[in-house]
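Q: What changes when S-adenosylmethionine is included in the input?
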Amino acid sequence: MAKNIELYNDKLAEQYDEATLKGKWFAPNKTNRLLSQFGFVKNNSAVLDLGVGTGQSIKSFTNKNCKIYAVDISNKMLRIVRKKYPEAKTFKYDISKGLSGLRLKDNFFDVVIAVGVLEFVKNIRKIIKEVDKLLKNNGYFIFTYEILLPEHKLQRLKVQYNADGYIENQPNIAKFKLYRRSKKEINEIFKNTGYQIIRHFKIRAFLKGPAKIPVYYGVVLAIKK
Ligand SMILES: C[S@@+](CC[C@H](N)C(=O)[O-])C[C@H]1O[C@@H](n2cnc3c(N)ncnc32)[C@H](O)[C@@H]1O
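A: The predicted holo structure follows.
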């Protein structure tokens, strides 16, 4: 049976670009800019995007003869990616099951991206360890996570339903869990891995709900050594 998060994103897919590009969703632009600043957007790269959505987070790698592997739980999102970027290979897959079911080659990717998705995955540690295996040496992982902020109106709980706090009488498909992490927790996970974190900072990621409350993410850029 399809999970609520899949049904929700299937429903959202057709309006996603219009809704987010109206200036409410800043995360992919910020991660794309960071990768460009570091000179990491190179021709012929092998790129994996986890939770690709409509492809906003892979924009920098298109038209560069890159091998793009785009993963999402929503078929409707992937359909839009295929229309925009026919060169992308798409995988309908739930990353909360772990990445081994994707049957990708180890030590293959130059870059792995996960923007706006890991807050929906309970076991972020497992994903970070599995991405480590998929990356080549000197490959990098850029991802966002939703930060736990005890003073914030919407970000003070470690776990809650996604729409809690701003939608009353939530429809069933809006009920899926969101997991928040502290910067310390993320840094701990990276200890004793093959990575080195080269940037780790907070951004204003998007404006949530009719009251347009700013939601903050942590951004991590890590290199496999
Ligand atoms: C907020 S959107 C971000 C999309 C894109 N990365 C961007 O920056 O615009 C989150 C995406 O993650 C997908 N997603 C959520 N949970 C997932 C899971 N467990 N496995 C794979 N994709 C998932 C959703 O379907 C949605 O397309």
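Observations recorded in class: Residues 4-224 form a domain with the Rossmann fold fold (CATH 3.40.50.150).
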